[in-house]
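Handover notes (outgoing to incoming on-call)

Open items:
1. Response regulator: sequence verified, structure written out, both below. Nothing else pending on this one.
2. Nothing else urgent.
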Amino acid sequence: MVQKAKILLVDDRPENLLALEAILSALDQTLVRASSGEEALKALLTDDFAVILLDVQMPGMDGFETAAHIKRRERTRDIPIIFLTAINHGPHHTFRGYAAGAVDYISKPFDPWVLRAKVSVFVELYMKNCQLREQASLLRLQLEGGGKDADGEAKESAGLLAELSARLAAVEEQAEALTKQLNDESTDAAAVATAAHLERKLTGLRRALDALEPGTGSTSSVSSQN
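Response regulator structure tokens:
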């Protein structure tokens, strides 16, 4: 069974949290509520999230301050944040949201279909990244197991490499399409920068995978790093 992704919903108004849950329930993922910035930061200490939907106007620690704390933590800095606000204060207010680390900024009342589509993109990228990490860990275990039926192990490892390469290629294609769409349609510099960051991470994964190909002499180096 594929583990569901967790989506963090942060809003001080229960009715807004209920509305978000109603909109996002169709994604069939795990929705986690937080009624304040402090509560959101506590949730982020123990759980991994695919995306955070963060209300801007909250008493005490507002959305901007909460986002700043999230981005300062090594564990959470790469989690995408979508800001939700009931008031449009103009370009300066929007810029402040992107400067705080948001990948998107949506004014209420928002289109449920648009919000669900935006969130689903980040959930899919998160799930693909988790699958790649699991496959990479399994591959390392296979490569480190050596000494038992060398030919069989070599064939099994080659098949695993091919499968992992195919999975990575699919994610690379999706990331490339997302980047092209943002470049063509979006004027949001933060969203474009986030897509570029994702592509850089995928490039690193591709280099690591290529280094594991037979004949590269990198199998021993992979073992020595673990």
